[in-house]
Specification:
It contains 7 helices and 11 strands. By secondary structure, the protein is α+β, with helices and mostly antiparallel strands.
Length: 257
């Protein structure tokens, strides 16, 4: 196995475990995991929070597609089908036949050298979330930054998440105002970075780099050797300047809204 392939496998594992534990610790969440696929379902009526993730090649794509439709159909929830690049090829014909369209690609980025200290954000006070008020600040920033409906933040990021092993949440404050967030989810050597968000009024001030660097430092302290994350179009240039590269992507498909 090549080093690059090994990193991809470790990054995929971090993604599956992180999303699975976050989902299963939401109020109505479910996480199902098998060799060929994983399912995470928050119960929220937003397809980005309900995912059928294909992680191994299959000779029966129609059967897996049917399984996804039956699972989420029984719960009357919209969902996404997600694939590591190349694995989607066998699914393209049945997806097209059933009216699925590619809705987005998720840019997977990795960083092979983790910093020991955070060199950014001199105007930002970054605090680890340890109590109810800190969690409420984190939830509100995520909710507003991602354009989620009011009340969705506490629904998908619950107090139970604070008690998960190898998970740390961070909120950056500009003065006394919560401005940005990030999360570390460690699995083995991998420092997974999630829920990176900056409120619009605080953007273009370097806060995105600073809040992203914090879980990298925390991961280094916990023995991680590399970091992984999924980047938005807005975040990708920021991560590239921090040294991240883009070894592969996830391709996502869904039915029309």
């Amino acid at each position: 196995m090549t080093i690059i392939q090994n990193i991809k496998d470790l990054a995929d594992f971090n993604y599956v475990v992180s999303m699975g534990l976050l989902t299963s610790n939401s109020f109505t969440g479910e996480f199902l995991n098998s060799f060929k696929y994983s399912i995470w379902n928050t119960g929220a009526p937003m397809r980005q929070f309900n995912v059928f993730f294909v992680k191994e090649k299959t000779s029966k794509p129609e059967k897996l597609l049917q399984k996804a439709e039956e699972f989420f159909g029984a719960r009357k929830l919209p969902f996404l089908l997600s694939f590591r690049e190349e694995l989607e090829k066998d699914f393209l014909s049945p997806l097209e036949d059933k009216g699925y369209k590619e809705v987005r690609s998720s840019t997977v980025m990795t960083l092979m050298t983790l910093p020991e200290t955070n060199p950014y954000g001199q105007d930002l006070s970054i605090r680890r979330v340890v109590d109810a008020q800190g969690l409420a600040d984190f939830q509100k920033v995520v909710e507003k930054s991602y354009g989620l409906g009011e009340g969705v933040g506490p629904f998908v990021i619950t107090e139970a998440v604070l008690n998960l092993p190898d998970v740390e949440l961070f909120t950056g404050y500009a003065g006394d105002r919560p401005a940005c967030t990030s999360m570390l989810f460690k699995t083995g050597q991998a420092a997974g970075v999630y829920w990176v968000a900056t409120l619009e009024e605080f953007r273009n001030r370097g806060f995105g780099r600073a809040i992203t660097a914090q879980p990298l430092v925390a991961g280094k302290q916990k023995g991680c050797t590399f970091a992984c994350l999924q980047a938005s179009d807005m975040g990708k240039p920021v991560y590239e300047k921090m040294g991240f590269d883009n070894p592969y992507n996830y391709r996502c498909f869904g039915l029309a809204d």
